[in-house]
Design goal:
alpha/beta; 13% strand; 204 residues; 5 helices
Length: 204
């Protein structure tokens, strides 16, 4: 018995099914194909951009010993002749309900911190000290610490209870060279790096 002759109409349902399947696959797949590409990291990559600006933002409050340890570790790091600016943000103490005695104690501590910071030597760039006139809190300190002035400015935010490795800047600089100025690795999805495990606490 002869087979029925196939016409174009017989392929229309199959064509519709394949089109819908392809549409589903493309809509399910991430639209940014660059997000799935692999990145290569080489800490010995040749320096590609010497003119970027690097700012250290130290956030502090009322811990003089911790601040001293933090700043001393920053000053002992290897910056390899790169200009690095140091900005120190000192939060103001909260008003005390316990009278003038406690306020005097807090004022004395604030003066000791300011005296230490003013006398701290920073030979790698400018040193800027910002002392708040009222208490802002740690969250506001973070949010207001940095307003980028160009696409070639990078900020490293440090809380005063941290102690840095002497190699931290070389590591960060290699990240900047590899993932920002290296076009083969660049991705707009990479917007920062952390030297400790990030932790997000809702509402704080």
């Amino acid at each position: 018995m002869a087979q029925p002759k196939k016409t174009l109409k017989n392929f229309i349902p199959l064509f519709i099914l394949l089109s819908l399947s392809a549409l589903f696959l493309f809509s399910y797949h991430p639209t940014n194909l660059n997000s799935t590409k692999s990145f290569s990291f080489n800490p010995n990559t040749p320096q590609t951009h010497q003119n970027f600006t690097f700012l250290i933002k130290v956030l502090t409050f009322n811990r003089l010993e911790s601040l001293s340890r933090c700043l001393n570790s920053l000053s002992k790091a290897h910056y390899d002749n790169h200009v690095v600016h140091l900005h120190i943000y000192i939060d103001h103490f909260q008003d005390s309900p316990n009278g003038y005695v406690e306020i005097d104690q807090k004022l004395n501590l604030s003066k000791r911190i300011l005296d230490f910071v003013d006398g701290f030597s920073w030979k790698y760039g400018e040193k800027l000290v910002h002392y708040r006139a009222s208490n802002a809190g740690l969250q506001a300190q973070w949010l207001e610490a940095w307003w980028p002035s160009s696409d070639d400015e990078f900020a490293f935010v440090v809380e005063d209870d941290l102690e840095l490795s002497p190699l931290y800047f070389r590591f960060l600089k290699s990240l900047i060279d590899n993932y920002y100025y290296n076009e083969s690795n660049f991705s707009p999805m990479i917007y920062g790096a952390s030297l400790q495990r990030p932790r997000f606490v809702p509402g704080t």
